[in-house]
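Hi R.,

Here's the chain you asked about this morning:
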Amino acid sequence: MPGGLKRRAGTGAVLAALLAVWPSVVSAGTGGGGGQGGGGSEDGVITAIVNDATEGSSTRSACSWQLHNATVGVPNLGTITWPFTLNGVTYNLFVRTCPEGVSYFSVPDRDPEDLLPQLLTDLKQRTLPQPTPVFTMLDPEFGWAYAQTPLDFRAGSSWHSVSVTASVGPIWARVTAVPRRLTFDPGDPAGPGPVSCSGNGPVAAYVPTAPGTCSYTYLNASSTSPVDGYHFRTRMTIDWSISWTSSTGAGGALASYSTSTVTPLAVAEVKGLVTCTGPQPEQGGC
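And here is the predicted structure, written out as tokens:
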């Protein structure tokens, strides 16, 4: 019979019957999300499992998969033989062995590349952190920076690698984003413009006697701001390099991506005041 199915009912009916009488046989869908998944986070690495609601990130690495194509019969309906083709998609039967037991999955024949569009959407829209701006040398009482004084900026807790993994049965793909450059746009149209830093600079310890590589010096007070005459509209941006790998060994570099955060920042100008009380040096010298 076409697709390896001997039947008096359709393939879908036989699969439905199998789920009813043999719950450990699960028909994995063809992907695309739709809420069919799970996930978790460990050590800053976020995982997402697609089309396999029984598989969580905590047990995933402890499970093994093996191709197990076979023929299964359902009383009064017929038999189904893996592999079979349904709606142009070929399905194989796999057995998954985990510490908690053995399960069978009808898995669509997929290439890891098929998982990339969803993975990139998850990475960009849900997973990649926006910068967490941290400024040093702000006035402890008023929270403003000072013109003509180096201002160190940092990326905060957002400067770390992020990975997202998706799987359909034993086929998986993983996309990893690594922060490469931090850029600070001071928001002062009359200033020297944005500055960038990389390496350990975005998370380096602050040293008061020496500005870090992530540092900017305002030349003007924010009273010149075209936004509100009080704050500069600053923007901090992380440029991410993105790559992928998979269960088949396929992978490589993908297009880079950026995330940004806009933060208002007040900048004050300090003017020195000299008081002359007499002609002697100790009196001001006038």
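One quick note: The first strand starts at residue 5 and ends at 7.

Cheers,
M.
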